[in-house]
Amino acid sequence: MSTFNGIVEEFPHIRIDYFRKNPDKPPPLACFLSHVHSDHLQGLESLRSPFVYCSAATKELLLRIEKYPHRMNFNKGILESRKQHYKHLAKLLRPIPLNVPTELELTPQLRIRTTLFNANHCTGAVMFLIEGDGKAIIYTGDIRAETWWVNGLIRDPVLIPYTLGDRRLDKVYLDTTFAVKSNIYRTFPSKADGLKELLEKVLSYPSDTVFYFRAWTFGYEDVWLALSAALHTKIHVDRYLLELYGSLGFRSQSSRWMDEIPFLSGFRLGNAFVPGCLTADESSRVHSCGPEFMCASVAAENAVFITPVVTRTQDGSEVPEVGAGGGVRDLYQSHELELSDKLAIEQLERLCR
C-alpha cells in the first residue's frame, strides 16, 4: 500500500503518484503516474490540471478503468452504458516512451528531464529518473528488484553515468513495502522460480483438466503468458479484462514499448492479424474470468483453482498474496470521496455521529 505523499523535495513543482490537493503547497506544474494500481491513484479522478506523464500502457489502461459497482450494474443491465471513471483525463495524460530522456517545460524558465524505466511490477509500470538544475532523483514506484532487472539498470545507457560513472543521485525514493524486520520477508523466490513451480504442478494434471486463476489485480500477466505457452491454450477472460488489455494491441503506441503486449493482445504479421492469448472463448483450459460472472465451463468442469502465494516461511508455510504491494482488489475499485475543505469534513463527521 503506497503511503507516499507525492512531494519530491528536490523538485517541489511536481507530484508523483498522489494527486490530492495539499493546502500547504502550491499546485504542481507537472504530475507523474508510475502505474495503475489503485493506491497510486488517490485524487486522480478529480484532477483537472496539470499534465500527467506516464507510460503509454498506463494511459490506455487508466482511460478504460471501470469501478466495480458500475461494471456490475452494466453487466446486469441496470445501467445502459459503461462508466469509465478516468476517461475525462484523456487530454491530460501524456505518455512518454521508456528509456528515452525527455525534456519537459514546466514554465518558460523551468525545465526538467525525465526518463522512464520498466519497473518489473505490472503492465505499464515504470520508474522515473528526474534531472534538472544540477539535481537528480529516482522514484521507483512499486518494483520487483530481481537480480536480472537490477543488472539491466546497471548497464542501461541512460543510467551508466550514475551506475558506473561519477554522477550521484541526490535521493532515491524507494519502494519499501517489504522492508520490515519480519523473517517472513527476508527472501523471496524469483518470478521465474514461481512460474517454474506453477508449470510443474499444472503439467502433472491430466491433459483435459480445466484451471481457474483469479487475476484480481494488474500484475499477473506473466502467469497468463506462461500458462498459455506451456499448455498451448488461450486464457479465457471476461469482457472487462479483454477490453482493457485489448486496448494495448497493435494499433496502440504501447504495443511498441511493452514486450508482453503482443503475446497478450495480438499483433499484425504482414496482412494478417495474429491474436493474443487472451480470449472470450469459454472452451479454453485456463480461465481468469471474474468470480461474480464465472463462466459455465469453470463450474461444470470442476476446475482446479490456482491461488498465488508471496513466499514460504522456514517451516514451509505459505504466505498468501493479499495485495501488500499495492493493487489489492484493483480490478474491483469502488468510489472515493475527496473533501479538501477541513470544515466540510468536520460537518460530515457530525452528521455521521
UniProtKB/TrEMBL annotation:
GO terms for molecular function: 5'-3' DNA exonuclease activity; damaged DNA binding. Residues 25-148 form the Metallo-beta-lactamase domain. The keyword Nuclease applies. Gene3D superfamilies: Ribonuclease Z/Hydroxyacylglutathione hydrolase-like. GO terms for biological process: double-strand break repair via nonhomologous end joining; interstrand cross-link repair; telomere maintenance. InterPro entries: Metallo-B-lactamas (IPR001279), RibonucZ/Hydroxyglut_hydro (IPR036866). Pfam families: Lactamase_B_2. Keywords: Exonuclease, Hydrolase, Nuclease. This is Metallo-beta-lactamase domain-containing protein. It comes from Elaphomyces granulatus.
